[in-house]
């Protein structure tokens, strides 16, 4: 039993840290420090830098440009990026569509898409959810009808994050509306976002930003060669996609980075009697409890990685629901701690779409523009990627053996 | 013991509720977004016509003699419909300060406040002061027959719309001393004064003020020199009680919206409302709303207490409960709405931003627990 990283793993961590320190462009670092997120061009630039170092696709097989890391190295790498903070390689590309293509795609699809997915020359968005298909994803209705050597797509996706930046979408569409089970008539398609008939409309979220969209399809023609795997097998690929590389989803490093920032603010924030917030017993207890929770989560993530290393399996590990559930909750708790540490300094709405916002308030000592934004932006963490309630259903059924109907 | 509203109070409640449902909600969010100074002219006029702008002032001063319970009624209704027009900042808060410091000056102003011609504002909070009320660095020094003020104020409620500003400044003492804080009336066009309007996350428009050696006549001093702290604290407690009531209204709307949404939203072949885990969560929200309502009432009736410490304990206790209820109800309303809850499309998302700000406005739960602790807890049960 050894709970700490080996000397090799520590050396790897030092190498990653040094690389980030020496190569992360200053404007990206500064913007992230202030806002808690990144702009699309910053994500693109950084992924190119990582790709030229061979680090853009940590868990991909070496033949498709992966670095050949162990699961622990992958974990360390992601945590270091999150804590720095530096942008993670675009998850839609690297964790989602890439593995689907190299596992189920044709040789042509692999050579056409994988290099550009890795380097982010092509930005993918995820077209799964629909107005009537959220937690119940298999209820999706967007239809794809064969016509010669193309599919004709009609319908609507919603919550399509980053569609406004995307070159491509990977989508679940219904190819067989008469299939006996609704999971059985679904296919997995790659759709060029420049195809006529696609209309992307912004959705503004409670943090005041434009991350996500509605996407409408009006007779959109997609070449049949963009089908991944077999027709009507899309649900299997989607399950594979949602189950792959789940160990990073706790995003412990992100929460630690938020805590770092909260404590930085708490060291200067005054409280009654000439003291600082960092000395306040209530605040300290909250921060300490969060530290404990994050430590537990980190060890749980590494335990799951270790178990998968010893018993490799294609099936997602139901215990990774722990990571999604507590991971999302600790992301929210750390964001809330940050907002509380910032206090009234975080009240002004800051429009990060522009680096120098119209709404910019001249503020001095406790500049904390991003704190409230981070808090609001963290709320959907317990909704997307399987809501917390759904994660609990998975634990209850798959692990504890409860049944819907006794 | 009697929790019933009087006939007049019941009428007020009905009238304000109607006014709010006619004009606010999502429509109010949109009209507020179009204003530059945060006051929607037609709605402010509507408030004047209903007597709301003169409501909290004594009748002898030309007001309508409403007390804390009337304020509680108004604010609960404002919370239900997400009223962004700055009634607390432009009327209640500066009014409470003046009524404690300089009632004669208030009497002069009330008629114009009541008609909506005059919007007041209290500029007190300073950059980085967090919730420390005595943290005043802006300074005022005597200069011949008058005063000169320099400093910066932030997050001034109603500060962009105000045409009469009351500014706290230090006339003696060190940075966070309670003694030595004074209040000055500053004309909005005073040379050396600049105002920047900006929006907060909840959609309210506030202002930052910079005072660069602003010269004021002797008569600008409001009340006694260096003695403003306890009036300031009373005014902030008054405003705190008001936003506790606002939290009750806002969480009540979120609760009803969530229950309705769960009954209509279909997933997995039926309405989400059939999941008991969500029913129980709504039941907890209901409890949270009712607990907040109780403490908002407690806050309102405690404002009139002679014993300053008793008042402060009650207000802090109420703020702790209302912040916690706002947090629980707000976060869970959003959660149970799923994706649509984190957007601008439904009122729930807007109300959530407001309740999130209410949690922290005039001191968060941590701040008020610490104040309650210093005062020995409720009834001084934990004191010496
Ligand atoms: C900011 C954001 C970004 C997103 N990005 C993308 C994207 O890029 N691509 C994409 O395809 N999708 C995306 N999504 C969609 C996301 O996956 C869905 O929001 C999620 O699946 C929940 O669906 P819903 O919003 O329709 O909520 P619903 O399914 O309507 O559920 C509402 C709430 O009900 C509760 N609930 C649901 N089911 C159950 C149950 N069985 N038992 C108990 N309680 C339950 C949960 O609290 C849930 O939050 C995004 C969502 C958000 C908010």
TrEMBL record, chain A:
Pfam families (UniProt xref): Acyl-CoA_dh_1, Acyl-CoA_dh_M, Acyl-CoA_dh_N
The keyword Oxidoreductase belongs to this UniProt entry's keyword annotation: yes
Keywords associated with the record: FAD, Flavoprotein, Oxidoreductase
The organism's place on the tree of life at top rank: Bacteria
GO molecular function, one term: flavin adenine dinucleotide binding
Location of the Acyl-CoA dehydrogenase/oxidase C-terminal domain: 232-400
Domain Acyl-CoA dehydrogenase/oxidase N-terminal: 7-119
InterPro entries: Acyl-CoA_Oxase/DH_mid-dom, Acyl-CoA_Oxase/DH_mid-dom_sf, AcylCo_DH-like_C, AcylCo_DH/oxidase_C, AcylCoA_DH/ox_N, AcylCoA_DH/ox_N_sf, AcylCoA_DH/oxidase_NM_dom_sf, Mycobact_Acyl-CoA_DH
Cofactor: FAD
Acyl-CoA oxidase/dehydrogenase middle domain segment(s): 125-220
Keyword Flavoprotein set for record: yes
A cellular component annotation (GO) from this entry: plasma membrane
Family: Belongs to the acyl-CoA dehydrogenase family.
Descriptive protein name: Acyl-CoA dehydrogenase
Protein source organism: Tropicimonas isoalkanivorans
From TrEMBL, chain B:
Protein family (similarity comment): Belongs to the acyl-CoA dehydrogenase family.
Residue span, Acyl-CoA dehydrogenase/oxidase N-terminal domain: 6-83
SUPFAM superfamilies: Acyl-CoA dehydrogenase C-terminal domain-like, Acyl-CoA dehydrogenase NM domain-like
Protein name: Acyl-CoA dehydrogenase
Requisite cofactors: FAD
InterPro entries for the chain: Acyl-CoA_Oxase/DH_mid-dom, Acyl-CoA_Oxase/DH_mid-dom_sf, AcylCo_DH-like_C, AcylCo_DH/oxidase_C, AcylCoA_DH/ox_N, AcylCoA_DH/ox_N_sf, AcylCoA_DH/oxidase_NM_dom_sf
Species this protein is from: Tropicimonas isoalkanivorans
The keyword Oxidoreductase is annotated on this UniProt entry: yes
Gene Ontology molecular functions: acyl-CoA dehydrogenase activity; flavin adenine dinucleotide binding
Domain Acyl-CoA dehydrogenase/oxidase C-terminal span(s) in chain numbering: 235-358
Pfam families: Acyl-CoA_dh_1 (PF00441), Acyl-CoA_dh_M (PF02770), Acyl-CoA_dh_N (PF02771)
């Amino acid at each position: 039993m050894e709970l700490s990283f080996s000397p090799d793993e520590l050396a790897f961590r030092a190498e990653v840290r040094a690389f980030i320190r020496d190569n992360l462009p200053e404007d990206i670092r500064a913007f992230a420090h202030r806002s808690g997120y990144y702009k699309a061009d910053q994500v693109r630039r950084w992924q190119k830098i990582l790709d030229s170092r061979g680090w853009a696709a940590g868990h991909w097989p070496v033949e498709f440009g992966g670095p050949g890391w162990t699961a622990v190295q992958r974990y360390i790498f992601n945590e270091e990026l999150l804590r720095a903070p530096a942008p993670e390689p675009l998850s839609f590309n690297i964790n989602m569509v890439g593995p689907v293509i190299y596992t189920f795609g044709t040789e042509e699809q692999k050579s056409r898409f994988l290099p550009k997915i890795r380097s982010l020359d092509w930005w993918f968005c995820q077209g799964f959810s629909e107005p009537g298909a959220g937690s119940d994803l298999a209820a999706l209705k967007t239809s794809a009808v064969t016509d010669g050597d193309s599919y004709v797509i009609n319908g609507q996706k919603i919550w399509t994050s980053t569609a406004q930046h995307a070159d491509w979408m990977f989508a679940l569409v219904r190819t067989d509306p008469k299939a006996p089970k609704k999971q059985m008539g679904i296919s997995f398609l790659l759709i060029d976002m420049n195809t006529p008939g696609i209309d992307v409309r912004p959705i503004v979220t409670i943090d005041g930003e434009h991350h996500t969209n509605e996407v409408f399809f009006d007779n959109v023609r997609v070449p049949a060669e963009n089908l991944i795997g077999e027709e009507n097998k899309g649900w299997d690929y989607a399950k594979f996609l949602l189950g792959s590389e789940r160990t990073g989803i706790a995003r412990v490093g992100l929460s630690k980075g938020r805590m770092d920032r909260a404590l930085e603010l708490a060291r200067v924030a005054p409280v009654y009697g000439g003291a600082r917030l960092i000395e306040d017993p209530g605040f300290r207890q909250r921060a300490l409890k969060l530290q404990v929770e994050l430590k537990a989560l980190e060890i749980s993530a590494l335990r799951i990685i270790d178990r998968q290393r010893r018993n490799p399996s294609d099936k997602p590990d139901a215990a990774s629901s722990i990571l999604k559930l507590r991971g999302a909750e600790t992301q929210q708790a750390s964001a809330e701690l940050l907002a509380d540490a910032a206090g009234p300094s975080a009240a002004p709405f800051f429009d990060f779409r522009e680096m120098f916002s119209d709404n910019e308030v001249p503020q001095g000592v406790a500049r904390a523009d991003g704190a409230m934004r981070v808090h609001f932006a963290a709320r959907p963490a317990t909704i997307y990627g399987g809501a917390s309630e759904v994660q609990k259903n998975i634990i209850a059924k798959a692990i504890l053996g409860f049944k819907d109907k006794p | 013991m009697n929790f019933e509203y009087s006939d007049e109070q019941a009428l007020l409640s009905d009238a304000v509720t109607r006014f709010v449902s006619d004009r606010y909600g999502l429509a109010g969010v949109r009209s507020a977004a179009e204003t530059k100074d945060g006051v929607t002219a037609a709605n402010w006029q509507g408030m004047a016509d209903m007597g709301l702008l003169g409501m909290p002032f004594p009748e002898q001063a030309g007001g309508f003699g409403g007390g804390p319970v009337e304020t509680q009624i108004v604010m609960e209704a404002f919370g239900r419909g997400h009223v962004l027009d700055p009634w607390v900042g432009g009327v209640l808060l500066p009014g409470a300060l003046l009524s404690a410091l300089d009632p004669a000056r208030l009497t002069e102003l009330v008629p114009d406040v009541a008609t909506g011609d005059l919007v007041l504002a209290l500029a007190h909070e300073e950059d980085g002061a967090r919730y420390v009320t005595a943290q005043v660095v802006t300074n005022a020094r005597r200069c011949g027959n008058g005063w000169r003020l320099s400093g910066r104020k932030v997050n001034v409620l109603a500060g962009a719309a105000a045409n009469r500003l009351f500014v706290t400044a230090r006339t003696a003492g060190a940075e966070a001393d309670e003694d030595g804080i004074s209040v000055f009336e500053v004309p909005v066009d005073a040379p050396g004064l600049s105002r920047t309007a900006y929006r907060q996350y909840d959609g309210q428009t506030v202002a930052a003020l910079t005072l660069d050696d602003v010269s004021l006549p002797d008569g600008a001093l409001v009340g006694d020199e260096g003695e403003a702290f306890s009036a300031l604290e009373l005014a902030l407690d008054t405003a705190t009680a008001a936003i506790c009531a606002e939290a009750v209204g806002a969480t009540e709307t979120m609760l009803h919206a969530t229950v309705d949404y769960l009954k209509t939203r279909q997933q997995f072949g039926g309405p989400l409302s059939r999941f008991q885990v969500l029913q129980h969560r709504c039941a907890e929200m209901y409890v949270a709303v009712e607990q907040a309502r109780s403490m908002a009432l407690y806050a309102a009736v405690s404002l009139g207490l002679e014993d300053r410490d008793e008042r402060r304990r009650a207000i802090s206790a109420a703020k702790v409960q209302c912040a916690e209820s706002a947090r629980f109800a707000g976060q869970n309303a959003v959660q149970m709405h799923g994706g649509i809850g984190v957007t601008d499309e439904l009122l729930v998302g807007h109300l959530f931003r407001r309740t999130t700000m209410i949690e922290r406005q005039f001191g968060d739960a941590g701040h008020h627990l610490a104040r309650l602790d210093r005062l020995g807890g409720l009834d001084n049960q934990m004191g010496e």
